[in-house]
Amino acid sequence: MKRNKTSETGAHIREKRRALAHDRWKRRATAIAWYGLLAEVFFLPLSPSVATVALLVGIAGTALRFYVDREFHFRHLRFDVPAVLFVAVSGLSVLSSPDRGFSFYNYYNLVGVYVLTYLLIGQNVREPGQMKSILRMACAAAVIVLLYGYYQFLFGIDISSMKWVDGDAFPELRKRVFSTWENPNILAGYLDIIICLAFGLFMKCRDRERRILLGAFMIAAAACLAMTYARGACLVIAVILAGYGVLRDRRVLVACILVVAILFVLDPMLYERITSVFTKVDTSTEMRRAFWESTVAMIQDHPFLGIGWGAYWMVYPEYDFYLQGANVLIVHAHNIYLNYMAEIGIPGAVAFFWFFFGTMIMALRTHFPADTGAAEQTTPFGKYQMPFRWNRLWHDWKEHDILAGLSLGIGLAVLSVALNGLTDDLLFNIPSSMLLWMLAALAGVLSCMCPEKVDTAGNETSGNDFLKKFQVTVRKGAKDAKEAAMDAKDKVQDRVQDKVHGMLYRELPANADASDKDKAEASAAKPAPGKEAPSGDKVPAAEQPETPRDPMDELAEEVRKALLQRKQEEEAASKAAEEAANPAEQAAETAEPVEATEAAPDDKPQKQEPAEQSAKPAEPQEAEAEAPEGDAAAEKSDTAAKDIEEVKEAAEEKNAEKKAEKEAGSHEKTKRDIKGDD
Fold it and tell me: For residue 193, with 0-12 CB atoms within 10 Å meaning exposed, 13-18 middle and 19 or more buried, which class applies?
């Protein structure tokens, strides 16, 4: 026995150790995945290589989490299907590349990084509070990028060896900042994304202090954007903010105009650079048009699988209509739409832009209801009567403000990439593409967190959504109909009870005339249609009404008849008792004329007076007969009392016989009512 207990104790201890070890591994896997994610968010704009290493660490932690945590399941996002189609078609495009080895190497490195970023964000971000940490990392990295950009602008950059600027058209322009990115245009695209995210948080935030901080951050980012002299990016962010101001809030439009005017006044060269898009034709514009013509020819020759992933620079010399063999390497078409159609074909481009624009629309249409317990906010600029306190900056934001602001900011950020893609291929840059897929994953996560879509899965189609809404509508209608039926039933029951109560307790007035009594007796004697008469005779069919009657009226009529019959019987019994008591009264009058006169009953019978009450006048006679006024008078009074008692018993027996005969011939329902009243 001791050995068995010892073995059981040892097994229990080992089981506990395994459970504790399993919990430790679960926590470790979760921490590895989460910190790898935050590291990628922070290092993505600063060092792409470090961000890639952090991505691989996060994916390893996610895989380990799937293995050790049985409660951690794979989650489908809304636009997983077009993403998978894009990956598949892009892989098939490698078969049409002039250098399949290079295209395959480029494909699994780049597309793999994009997909892993999408999976890392989409699977590990499952709580609203995690968005705060992601925002902190992204904001810290953006501040470093801005500071480094200002440093380049203040201390200068020699760009004589770089072909970013048309020196003939702009001889005074000597520098364009690019900060930690490879190109001023790429930095400008990143700044457009950052400004859109900050603008979304600004519009949804309800704290005065945070609005001031976000506004200052947007102005600083706009100034750094102006230092890049990227015409397309500057026009894109101006169009987005001005369009939002026209559609939603005119104050945003006014603020945008003021900021642009101040930048133009401070830097006249920026004004000349922006207006050159509409007034001058430089080498940059001419080259883009030439690239687009060559790319259209590539699409016409390879419409299905394209020229191969990443093979644009290898195929372009065959379609060179502008440079004519110049020693210049052209790596993309300066247009994301044409570039994707040329490299992976029209089907692959359709899948990608389904994913791309679907994400943008989903983010713009994802709404989070305002917190009812929070402070009221009627305008996007909040309440300004509150005292200004900097310590509010360090308090946690409301989850509603963060989620709603991120949703709006991501939608506008993807829109900025779409507009910038008309004149430049920002997605050719690896960090830019990773950032886009990261935003797409965050948009999918926000869609899953939206309270309006908690009941539905993230990958349901519009048809399933319609069916869900239809089912909810049908259930609501059925519930309303059921409640209406219950209310109607309660009303009918109340009506029935009121009617029955009124009929049962209805009485004829005491001063009713003979005609009313005759009518009542006639209605009581007449049985209900289709029912047997109390005497057992059938009512002729000709006397029955042609139209059907209300069952409640029939019930009330039967109850009324029963009450009238009972009243008649009581009156007949009282009359019989009085007639039987008259001889005894005469005898009592002979013995005691004075007292007998006082004891004479009332000639007029009272309403609903039972036989027992009608026999009360004989009691004084009994009392008087007991008085010591002679033996003869006592004997007479005793004889009269006995006669009265015999008459009363005979009357009661007669009434009982009549009542039994009438009850035997009456309707069952009337019989029950009469017995109940008795």
Answer: buried
Segment 153-158 shows an average pLDDT of 77
Place of tokens 């005759």: 518
Closest to 392 (Cα-Cα) out of 160, 157, 146, 207? 207
At 531, the amino acid letter reads K
Q: What is the mean pLDDT of residues 608-634?
A: 43
**Residue among 562, 335, 412 at smallest CA distance from 343:** 335
Rounded to whole angstroms, the maximal C-alpha distance in the chain is 164
User: What HEC string does 341-399 produce?
Assistant: HHHHHHHHHHHHHHHHHHHHHHHHHCCCCCCCCCCCCCCCCCCCCCCCCHHHHHCCCCH
**Closest CA relative to residue 188, chosen from 231, 145, 138, 233:** 233
Q: Where are the alpha helices (DSSP H) in 76-207?
A: 80-93, 100-124, 128-155, 184-204
Percent of the chain with pLDDT over 70: 64
Q: Cα–Cα distances in Å, from 137 out to 22, 41, 132, 398?
A: 30, 6, 9, 18
Identify residue 69 by its one-letter amino acid code. D
* Chain center to CA of 650: 82
Based on the number of CB atoms within 10 Å of its own CB, is 486 exposed (0-12), middle (13-18) or buried (19 or more)? exposed
Contact between residue 218 and residue 195 where contact means Cβ atoms under 8 Å apart? yes
Q: Is the dihedral of CA 84, 406, 57, 310 positive or negative?
A: positive
According to DSSP H, which parts of 302-335 are helical? 312-315
- Residues 553 and 507: their CA atoms lie apart, in Å, by 17
Summarize pLDDT for 528-552 with one digit per residue, the tens.
444 444 444 444 444 444 445 555 6
127-148 pLDDT tens trace: 988 998 999 999 999 999 999 9
CA distances from 287 to 281, 292, 323, 395 (A): 10, 9, 9, 51
* Rounded Cα gap, residues 95 and 100, in angstroms: 6
pLDDT tens sequence across 492-542? 667 766 765 665 554 444 444 444 445 444 444 444 444 444 444 444 444
* Tokens representing residue 371 in the block: 């917190």
* Exposure on the CB side of residue 27, measured as CA atoms within 13 A: 6
Task: Please report the sign of the dihedral spanned by the C-alpha atoms of residue 141, residue 144, residue 146, residue 148.
Answer: negative
Beta-strand ranges (E) seen in 571-620 are none
How is residue 550 annotated by DSSP?
A: P
pTM > 0.85: yes or no: no
**Residue pair 290/332 in contact by the 8 Å Cβ criterion:** no
C-alpha 336 chain-centroid distance:
38
